[in-house]
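[#protein-structures] MJ: dropping Diguanylate phosphodiesterase here for a structure pass
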Amino acid sequence: MSAILQPLAAVLDDDPDVVVTLSLQLHALGMEARCHSRPEALLAELPILGPRLLIVDLELGRSNDGIEVLRRLAECRYAGAVLLLSGVESKIIHIAERVGRTLGLHMLDPLGKPYRLTDLRRRLEDISPRVVSERQSGDVLRSQEEVDLALTRDEFIVHYQPQFELASNRLSGVEALVRWQHPEMGLLQPGQFLPLMTPDQCQALTRRVASLALRDADRWSEAGLSLSMAINVTPAELMNAELLSLMDNGRRGLSHRAPIVLEITESDSMDDELLGGEVAARLRLHGVEVSVDDFGVGFSSLSRLQLLPISELKIDRSFVRDIHEASQDAAIVEAVALLGQRLGIRVVAEGVESLDRLPLLRTYGCTHVQGFALGRPMPAEQIPVIDRMLPA
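AK: finished. structure tokens for Diguanylate phosphodiesterase:
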């Protein structure tokens, strides 16, 4: 079994000058690069190369475009990271990014052309050079039986991303994020295994995450740290009447009851709004709140606010990222924050990757923030010892 000392990146761009520059920059950042000018060549070699990163231009000649490439990557169940690097207008880039996320791809924050090396380095800081086997962690897991075995062995764990309240500048809650501690491939991100899982497996995973998260929240509370706990569920799970008993059973026997928030993704479909509203209402009666994640990227935002007892909106990171540079994004953030104020619900700005975003988010009326600049997802034991105040 051979070893690769540098993570492999694949570049899809038909501009030779960009290809040369990218190759040199990736090499400087510790990544070996394989470059392609046509999608067909890349897709043909994809199973062989198994790259941990794809850098894709959206403009690939008259007969090809990067969005179609994203769809074909999803069909191939590509599980590595995807970085869009393009000179088209930012609105088109953001649309393509959201398409990729909706397809289940692991999308990094995109870059426009021209870009700075420091910006590229920041995008790739999660893809660190290390020795990996031929079966790299970016490879697609092909066996649902392997998932069943992982559930039996309790290989799925939970990391927590801190959330801060802007009014007090204090740590106020966490979001529970599932990881797979794979015995051979190490720590896997959700995009590497969720697309493979069946509905029954997803439901079993939700039970596992909820159980771990509630017990961790109880331990923190006993140590004097009361934090809200956000747990992601699908609309299908929200419409499942068993969700109520799952939450009640998960909290039974715990000495403390931290606030629990169930997050549904706004862009996901919900076939029966009435049933979803009924379950959400019953959850609320039992002390469990509902949050709409990635708010602003779907097409049913206002109707859901009308039909569901929503306690929180989480503004999608694609709007937060460029609020200083893009007036349209800033206007959307301000409008959602105002909407939250009028409805009396929390508004969380996700994807805060620079502290200079905080004054503007506070001015607009966002109530809470989370992002890499404030804290990355971390194991439960690190939460009680992190700095509980926003960085100055």
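MJ: nice. The first strand starts at residue 8 and ends at 12.
AK: one more thing. Residues 8-123 form a domain with the Rossmann fold fold (CATH 3.40.50.2300).
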